[in-house]
Amino acid sequence: MELLFNITIFPGMLYFLAWTVLLFWFFRKFMAALHKRVGPHFNGPAGSYQTLFDFTKLLTKESVTPSGVNPYLFSLMPILAALIAMLPSAFIPWTPSTTVVPTEYGVLALVVLIGIEPFLLFLSGFGSDNKYSFLGGIRILTQMISSETAFFLAALSPALLFGTLNLQTITESASWLSFVVLIPAFVLYFIALLALLEQPPFNIPDAEQEIVYGFYTEYSGTNYFLLKFAEFAEFMAVYAGATVLFLGGYKGLLVDGYLCFFLKMLLMAMVMMAIRAATPRVTMKQMIRLFWQYLVPLSLLNIAWIMLAKIYLLGGMA
User: Radius of gyration of the chain from Cα atoms?
Assistant: First the structure.
């Protein structure tokens, strides 16, 4: 019964659906305040009708399969992308007693599953038989290869500091001193996750002004909804990963629990949305230069800093 509860309710399908609706509503409200948009302000209580209208429109539109595509690949990729995006949640310690798949290699499972998602989105563009979708997919792979080195090195920093790949142990070992030591790694992680999520200023794979809508171009209806669902599910995976690795997970100032975990994820969402509203899109050349010329060397320097801090500040903790 507990496994069934985990799969269907928390942290399962219903939880992901609730997260997607809440984050989508919060995203529209937050951006409306920054951009002075009318709909999310006045359509229903707190603009909630706007979110309802958007989801209804997505689910009732016809799903069109273009002629010339492989229909199985075209229709399978959105489903697979959504499923893979939800898998990291199984390894996250949401509360002291809620981890669906407790394992000593939780950090590796987290970064590997997050790293698979961009490749599935590339296959979505590749299977669309559309030059703009294919170009968007190629941009995803280029962006993934450029950003994942910095992302992985930053995500492994807590494992090096605490001497374990177990996410539960990392959460329990977190302290204010370890948080200060991990601040550079957290900044690197956050910048890299913007690129992995294709979020501004790194929304290069779906640049509407250049390639229509990138790998999304040929998708509509339920298939498009599944791709957007996968996107918001991946948001939760990387936010939850950052919360566990750098921010102490469910640990709070006064009370430990899921509420502390959720508020930390929501804070990261707000920062990401503020960056989205305030920054223009960079070019592919600028993105590649940023990661390979600056962030990857900084990530290697951060590893050296972690080892020095472990020996001299934290007493060489095991």
Answer: 20
**pLDDT digit string (tens) for 165-222?**
999 999 999 999 999 999 999 999 999 999 988 988 999 988 877 888 888 889 988 8
**What are the CA-CA distances from residue 313 to residues 159, 177, 180, 187, 289 (Å)?**
16, 9, 11, 20, 33
What are the residue ranges spanned by the domains of the chain? Answer: 1-60, 61-312
Question: How many CB atoms are closer than 10 A to CB 93?
Answer: 23
Cα–Cα distance between 303 and 154 in angstroms, integer? 8
Q: What is the pLDDT of residues 87-110, one digit of tens each?
A: 999 999 999 888 888 899 999 999
Amino acid present at 240: A
Which 3-state string (H, E, C) describes the chain? CHHHHHHHCCCCHHHHHHHHHHHHHHHHHHHHHHHCCCHHHHCCHHHHHHHHHHHHHHHHCCCCCCCCCCHHHHHHHHHHHHHHHHHHHHHCCCECCECCCCCCCHHHHHHHHHHHHHHHHHHHHHCCCCHHHHHHHHHHHHHHHHHHHHHHHHHCHHHHHHCCCCHHHHHHHCCHHHHHHCHHHHHHHHHHHHHHCCCCCCCCCCCHHHHCCHHHCCCCHHHHHHHHHHHHHHHHHHHHHHHHHHCCCCCCCCCCCHHHHHHHHHHHHHHHHHHHHHCCCCCHHHHHHHHHHHHHHHHHHHHHHHHHHHHHCCCCCC
Phi, psi (deg, nearest 5) at residue 242: -65, -40
Whole-number Å distance between alpha carbons of 93 and 118: 24
